[in-house]
Amino acid sequence: MTVVAERSGGGGTVRRIAGALHRRPRLRLALLLTAPLLWLTVLYLGSLAVLFVSAFWTTNSFTSQVVKVWSTDNFHELFTTPVYRQVILRSIGVALAVTALCAVIAFPLAFYTARVARPKWRPLLVVAILTPLWASYLVKVYAWRLILSEGGLADWMLKPFGAGGPGFGLPATVLTLTYLWLPYMILPIHTALEQLPANLLDASADLGARSWRTFRSVVLPMVLPSVAAGSIFTFSLSLGDYITVQIVGGKTQLIGNVVYSNIELNLPMAAALGTVPVVVIVVYLLAMRRTGALSSL
């Protein structure tokens, strides 16, 4: 009898807690989000805070030891030294170029997979788009190194036209990053086009609008938030990448590999450089928020 009473008492406690949580949805939500938010705060935001604070330290020029003295010299040097300014602007330009190329390539592919292909083939096409993401990052980048190398596949394909491959450098970096992040742009656009009501296209045609007018006035405004959502991935991933430019970039310098090269020699300067992509991405997110892109993620 005692055991039964203990079990019934324990069950009653569980029921009371469940009832209290059922009546208080905000409390239930808070309990569910406490652990992941704590993890995010401690590991992610905490590491960003340490990065930002260490950017105001200095380095002893003789011993290369970090001196924990508050100074803005790193940021002053960052924005007054022409080399650093060029690297920052080049990195932002590469990220924007990759994003633009991904959007141009992704839109017709997504339109075909969402509106033109037969319904039974559409899931297979989506899987085919996702397949490159299953391969190793390094394998894909080194594959592009072989393609773009002298005498590689690019040279072989362009040789009949009297041209050659781009070789290693800035164009190779943009091309490789476009290939790497293209699926992140295709999928949001595919989803938006798939959900686009067919009666809107029919109504536009009935009113006499041609294909380009329908695309510009009907399709593009409804798909634009998804394009912006995909651009968040392509822009941020390209801006922070440093391995691709080391493998196929030749002598090209971007923020990522400049940060990497300064970690051992000048950690505070590397931290100051590392804050630049964070600030740029925050500004980019605020700009994309106005398009409704964040609600599409």
Task: Quickly list its features.
297 residues, mainly alpha, MetI-like fold, 2 domains, two-stranded antiparallel sheet, 13 helices, 2 strands, globular, disordered N terminus
User: What is the strand arrangement across the widest sheet?
Assistant: 1-2
Number of strands: 2
Shape: globular
Radius of gyration: 26 Å
Residue windows where pLDDT falls under 50 for at least 5 positions: 1-9
Level of helix content? over 70%
Q: How many domains is the backbone divided into?
A: 2
Task: Count up the helices.
Answer: 13
CATH architectural arrangement of the largest domain: Orthogonal Bundle
Major β-sheet annotation: 2 strands, antiparallel
Average pLDDT metric: 82
Which CATH class of the largest domain applies here?
Mainly Alpha
- SSE order: HHEEHHHHHHHHHHH
Indicate the structural class: mainly alpha
Please give a structural write-up.
This protein has 297 residues and is mainly alpha-helical. It has two domains: 2-44; 73-296, MetI-like (MetI-like fold, Orthogonal Bundle), CATH 1.10.3720. Helix content is 76%, strand content 1%. The protein has 13 helices and two strands. Strands 1-2 form a two-stranded antiparallel ribbon. Helix 5 (122-134) runs antiparallel to helix 8, helix 8 packs across helix 10 and helix 9 crosses helix 10 (211-240). The N and C termini lie far apart (55 Å).
